Amino acid sequence: MTRTWLVTGANRGIGLEYVRQLAAAGQRVIATARDLEAAGQLSTLASRYPEGVRLETLDVADADSLTAFVQRLGDEAVDVLVNNAGLYGGSWNSDAQRQSLEGMDYALWEEILRVNTIAPFRLTVALRANLRRSAQPLVVMMGSDLGSISANTMGQSHAYRSSKAALNMVMKGLSIDLAGEGITLVSMAPGWTRTDLGGAAATWSVDESVARQLDVIAGLGPVDSGRFLNLLGEDVAW
Fold first, then answer.
1. Which of 50, 105, 167, 182 has its CA 20 to 30 A from that of 97?
2. Under 8 Å CB-to-CB from 205, ≥6 apart: which residues?
3. Over 60: is that where the pLDDT of 44 sits?
4. pLDDT exceeds cutoff 70 at 221
């Protein structure tokens, strides 16, 4: 069954791999990025699947950009919204000091919260009508194991951790508010993945992480709404 997927932050990493695998599987993808001119790999991918991949400019943290994007989308149905666009503020290894006790960059923390927590809420709410046009609407919030309060035994990465923990609360609240509209919401922890953030030593390759996530997503339904899952389909501790 062909579905329409909307993937934010599709210019690199997990978002780009979502587009690649979905397009190869014959799905229709609306792929967004802040700067399409700088998204060379995404543009190449779109040219390979001209009927399957539609590129759109979207800065999820900018209200005007989001409003303009929703207007361009019009009354088009969205079956699956993948709120993937996110910000750490550099890489895990080289920029950790900016989220440390001594070196916390508070302006960065505010930006991370805007991108990782507020933006997914705002976009989901803005696309309610589009989601309701689907027979089985689903919203996937790209969470993180680092957002698990129970599993936090290391400290550090305070800005990123707090933004992803807050995203889980946003997802849970929306799953209750939108239940009557038939919209299913989950948070997905993609695992420690070899992206710019995860680094070369991470457990999962990007393609395997996304393939496993898509396997989990394929089996989700309304009964799963409000869950925090990992790429193996297991519940992650809040």
1. 167
2. 193, 194
3. yes
4. yes
